[in-house]
Structures are given as structure tokens and as C-alpha cells.
């Protein structure tokens, strides 16, 4: 199993000034414009030590994706026949030719690499900026984010030797930029929302704060404890988002007195992450995720993956942490069966090659039998959080076609939450499993917002769940919290409880959900037909909810009992 800490090889001082050997070079990645908010400050100091990751070309990604669909499509004879860690590595490992060629090039330039993944598809190497500029025909510079003051070292283009272009997927960090705003939790406490209303005065949702009892009533979620020891959830937390056991205990005592109040999570730490207890933690996301997954998925084991001990904007590298989280999960012999994540970035801040590489990791997890879910964002069509824009801004990783993107709703009966992220990817093509559902929505849209989105892109979200006025105990405060951060753990909890029933019946877990959701399970989801999401500016509108799939609430919200019936449980 891969060590949870970085394994970097330091260069000997005598080698730091070595002149790289020259080869015929070609541009590998470039960006024409800086991401919104960044300006060029000046060249990086030649002595600045850069830790660069090289993603080596994986030997059979096409075969991996084909296998993912084969084991995830209900009509397939191989449905549920998930792959072992070793079988996955056969798809994602680089060829011996690729490994040898890249390492020989580094050795020629007096550099040594360290493998960062069990499959060997990620390697790391350190070098001064001056060496990196020469080695990659790059111009590593300092860029500053105007609103936060955060500074990063990046280049707007880099090259690799022509004979190695087919062996190297990408070099990171180079043309991908961190998004200091987007890296924060999507729990949108700043978004205003009217008080919850309901159609009658007897249901448990007719209150100002959403509680587990409300969602149990709304989605028919059982309180019966899960029983399988092989069923668990992994919930990543990034950049000092630390849950507190004392807050969870108070939450359970108040809302789930039938659960042992001393129930807690299992801690995993990566990249210097931690989970200090006894502090007056103001973490919204960490406490929300633990309180609501443990509070809804009764007795399901929850693992909290704490990644990084760096506060934003002091150097947090969100994409790096996504890489390491996926690498950790793929290195496990028996990974948790559900992984909801409530963080993201705007798609434009991540290079296409990096987005594709990360997405292939989620394909690999799906082929292992892991249901990967991400919140769709809280900015409507303007990205992770609301901002002005001239064209619609998709969010990442929610646009990856090999995971399930979860949008947001509110009110009873449910209506689309106006902040629910949704739209179409500019990087990923629309997958076949959603072609029919999305084609109907495009016909419904007609010329509305024409030219503001990529009509052939992967459409998101896939589904939705309640996302307004959740009660969360944190830092001496107590709710209300809004955002798709609330929706993701809710939907994931339903899936985890269904997995428990499947395991008890001797059947495989649900794994990659989307082929199932867009086929046999669609009838068990509650279609949300009212509402819309935020626009870019006053001159445009967002997307509308309507009958069938839409770019605000996807296919709709879950109903545990109906989904269980679809599974013939």
C-alpha cells in the first residue's frame, strides 16, 4: 500500500546547476489566458526548488473504460464483476518502454525520480526553476491572485522531447492553477434563502432547520442499522477542514438518540493531514460531512480522509490532493464502497490533460466497485461559487463522466435550489449512458442560452438532493448551512444503505452509479420540475428544471424504498 506521505528524492547540491541535455522538443501543454483573478508578478527565482510530478502514459485507458461500463451496466453479463487492485494496475500502469524512456531522459540530466503510486503511473522529481525552464522549454513565473494575495509558481506553456510525447501524459504543476475561492467548501453560508415551507404542518420538514428526521421522511431513509462489516464510506476533507468528535456527539444526542453517541469516524491522513480534537473548530465542511453521513447511514463505517494541513490561500494544491486521494483509494485491497466529496474547482483552472488523468482515476475506482460522488457546485452556471462570467463555467471534477454529480434542491415539494451547479463540460464529451436523457433537454432548450455552453459536452448534475438550511454544529454555532455539500453526503448515504442490503443478499455493491441511474433506477427517482439556477450576469439566464433530466437537478432526488425495489431487495 502506498505510504500516505510524499516520497520525494532530493538532488545532490552538486547536481542542482547541471545543464540538461537537449533534444528535439514539442509543446505538450499551453494556455492562452490566465484563470480569472490571476496576474503575472514576475519570473520565479532561478533557485526556487520545484517538486514536479510526471504522469506517465497509462497503457490501456480505453480498455479500462470499456471494462468500467461492462461491470457497471445492469444489462451486462459482467455487471458487478469488479476488478481487483492488481487487475486495475494492469490497465493504468505505464509500459516498461515508457518508464524506461522517461527515466533515462531524467538520468541524462542528472535527475532521479521517485514513484508515487503502486502502478507507477505517477513519478516525482525535484529541481531548481532554472533547471525546469531549460528541461521543459518553460518560463516558470510567480502569479498572484488579486483577491486573496496567494502566490503560485506556474508556467503558461511547457515542452517535452518529441520522442517522449507519447510516454508522458502531463507534468504537474505547470499550466493548472489553484483556485483559492473554489478550494473552500461548497457549504454556501453566504447564499441567502427564504425560510423553509411545507404543504402541511405535520411532516418533520416543516421547520426552519433541516434535521435527519426530515430527510428520513422525505427520502424514506430507514433508521435500521447497517450490518455488513464490509460496507463503508470514505469522506475526504481538504485544507484544515477538521470535524470534531464532541460536535458529532451533540448532533447524535440531539437528532439520532438511537445511535451510540460515542460513534465516530476512522481517521486516514495524507499529505500531512490531521484531525486535532478539543479545539473550537469552525470547520463547516468537515463537521457537516461527518454529522450527516454518520447521522443518516446508520452504523455504516465512515472513514475520514484528512488531506493537507495547509490553510487557504497559503499554498493549498487542490488538484494534487485529488490525485493523492484517488491514489490512496486505488492502493487499498478493499476500498470503501462509496466516496462522496464536497469540493471542486472551475473546469477552466485545470488543464485538459490533468482533468483527463484524474477522471481516469475515477474510472479505475468505479471498476473496483466504488461509487464516486461530487457536489455539482454552488454557483449555478457560473462555476463552483457565484461570480460574473461571459459564458457558462462548468465545475470539476463534477463533469467527469465516470462519477456521479449531485445538485441541490429545497422546499417541500422539492424545487431546484437556485445555486445548484449544472451545465455541460468543455473538456469531456457526453457519455452514451446519458445521451437520450440529455437530448430531450436540449430539444426543450432550443435556442435559449445558445453559444453560452457546449451542447455536446458531458452534462451534469446526474441527480440531486436537499441542500438548504441543514443543521450543523460547528465552532460554537449551529446551522443553517446551504450548498451541494449537503446534497452529496445525503445521496451517498442512501447508496451506502442500499449497498448494505446488497452485501447481505450476497450480491455486489452498486459501484459506478450512472449507467444504473440513467436506466432502471431512473423511475425510482423523484423528478424535480420547478426552479432554475443562477445566471452568469444580468444579461443571461441559467438553466430551468423541467420534466426529465435537466441541468439543475439531473434525474431527480432519491427514494430509498423505490430504489430498493428496483434492485429487487
Automatic annotation (TrEMBL):
Q: Which cofactor does it need?
A: Ca(2+)
Any one GO cellular component localisation term in the record: extracellular region
The UniProt entry annotates the active site at 285 (charge relay system), 289 (charge relay system), 485 (charge relay system)
Endpoints of the signal sequence: 1-18
Looking up InterPro entries in the UniProt record yields:
Peptidase_S8/S53_dom_sf, S53_propep, Sedolisin_dom, Tripeptidyl-peptidase_I
Its keywords, alphabetically, are: Calcium, Hydrolase, Metal-binding, Protease, Serine protease, Signal, Zymogen
Gene Ontology biological process terms from the UniProt entry: proteolysis
What note does UniProt attach to the cofactor annotation?
A: Binds 1 Ca(2+) ion per subunit.
> What protein name applies here?
Peptidase S53 domain-containing protein
Q: Which organism is it from?
A: Daedalea quercina L-15889
Amino acid at each position: 500500500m502506498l505510504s500516505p506521505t510524499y516520497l520525494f528524492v532530493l538532488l545532490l547540491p552538486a547536481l542542482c546547476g547541471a545543464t540538461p541535455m537537449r533534444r528535439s522538443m514539442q509543446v505538450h501543454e499551453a494556455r492562452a489566458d490566465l484563470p480569472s483573478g490571476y496576474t503575472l508578478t514576475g519570473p520565479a527565482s532561478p533557485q526556487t526548488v520545484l517538486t514536479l510530478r510526471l504522469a506517465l502514459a497509462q497503457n490501456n485507458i480505453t480498455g479500462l473504460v470499456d471494462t468500467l461500463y461492462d461491470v457497471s451496466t445492469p444489462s451486462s453479463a459482467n455487471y458487478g464483476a469488479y476488478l481487483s487492485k492488481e487487475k486495475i494496475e494492469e490497465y493504468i500502469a505505464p509500459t516498461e518502454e515508457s518508464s524506461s524512456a522517461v527515466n533515462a531522459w531524467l538520468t541524462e540530466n542528472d535527475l532521479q525520480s521517485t514513484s508515487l503510486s503502486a502502478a507507477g503511473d505517477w513519478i516525482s522529481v525535484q529541481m531548481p526553476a532554472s533547471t525546469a525552464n531549460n528541461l521543459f522549454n518553460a518560463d516558470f513565473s510567480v502569479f498572484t491572485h488579486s483577491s486573496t494575495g496567494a502566490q503560485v509558481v506556474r508556467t503558461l506553456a511547457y515542452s517535452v522531447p518529441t520522442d517522449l510525447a507519447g510516454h508522458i501524459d502531463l507534468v504537474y504543476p505547470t499550466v493548472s492553477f489553484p483556485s483559492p475561492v473554489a478550494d473552500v467548501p461548497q457549504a454556501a453560508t453566504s447564499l441567502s434563502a427564504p425560510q423553509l415551507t411545507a404543504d402541511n404542518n405535520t411532516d418533520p420538514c416543516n421547520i426552519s432547520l433541516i434535521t435527519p428526521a426530515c430527510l428520513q421522511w422525505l427520502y424514506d431513509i430507514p433508521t435500521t442499522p447497517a450490518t455488513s462489516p464490509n460496507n463503508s464510506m470514505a469522506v475526504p476533507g481538504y485544507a484544515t477542514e477538521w470535524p470534531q468528535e464532541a460536535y458529532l456527539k451533540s448532533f447524535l444526542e440531539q437528532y439520532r438518540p438511537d445511535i451510540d453517541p460515542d460513534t465516530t469516524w476512522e481517521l486516514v491522513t495524507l499529505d500531512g493531514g490531521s484531525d486535532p480534537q478539543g479545539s473550537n473548530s469552525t470547520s463547516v465542511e468537515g463537521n457537516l460531512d461527518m454529522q450527516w453521513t454518520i447521522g443518516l447511514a446508520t452504523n455504516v463505517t465512515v472513514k475520514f480522509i484528512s488531506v493537507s494541513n495547509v490553510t487557504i490561500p497559503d499554498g493549498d494544491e487542490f488538484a494534487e490532493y485529488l490525485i493523492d486521494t484517488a491514489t490512496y483509494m486505488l492502493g487499498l485491497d478493499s476500498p470503501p464502497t462509496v466516496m462522496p466529496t464536497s469540493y471542486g474547482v472551475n473546469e477552466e483552472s485545470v488543464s485538459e490533460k490533468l482533468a483527463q488523468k484524474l477522471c481516469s482515476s475515477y474510472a479505475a475506482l468505479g471498476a473496483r466497485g466504488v461509487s464516486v460522488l461530487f457536489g455539482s457546485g454552488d454557483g449555478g452556471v457560473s462555476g463552483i461559487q457565484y461570480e460574473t462570467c461571459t459564458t457558462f463555467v462548468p465545475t470539476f471534477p463534477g463533469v467527469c463522466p465516470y462519477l456521479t454529480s449531485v445538485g441541490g434542491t429545497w422546499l417541500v415539494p422539492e424545487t431546484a435550489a437556485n445555486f445548484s451547479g449544472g451545465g455541460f463540460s468543455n473538456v469531456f464529451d457526453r457519455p452514451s449512458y446519458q445521451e437520450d436523457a440529455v437530448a430531450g433537454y436540449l430539444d426543450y432548450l432550443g435556442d435559449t442560452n445558445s453559444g453560452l455552453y457546449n451542447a455536446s459536452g458531458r452534462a451534469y448534475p446526474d441527480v440531486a438532493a436537499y441542500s438548504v438550511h441543514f443543521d450543523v454544529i460547528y465552532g460554537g454555532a449551529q446551522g443553517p448551512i446551504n450548498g451541494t455539500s449537503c446534497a452529496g453526503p445525503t445521496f451517498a448515504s442512501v447508496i451506502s444503505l442500499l449497498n448494505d442490503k446488497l452485501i447481505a443478499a450476497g450480491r455486489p455493491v452498486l459501484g459506478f452509479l450512472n449507467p444504473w441511474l440513467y436506466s432502471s433506477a431512473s423511475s425510482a427517482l423523484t423528478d424535480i420540475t420547478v426552479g432554475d439556477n443562477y445566471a452568469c450576469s444580468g444579461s443571461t439566464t441559467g438553466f430551468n428544471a423541467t420534466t426529465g433530466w435537466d441541468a439543475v437537478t439531473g434525474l431527480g432526488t432519491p427514494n430509498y424504498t423505490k430504489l430498493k425495489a428496483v434492485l429487487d431487495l
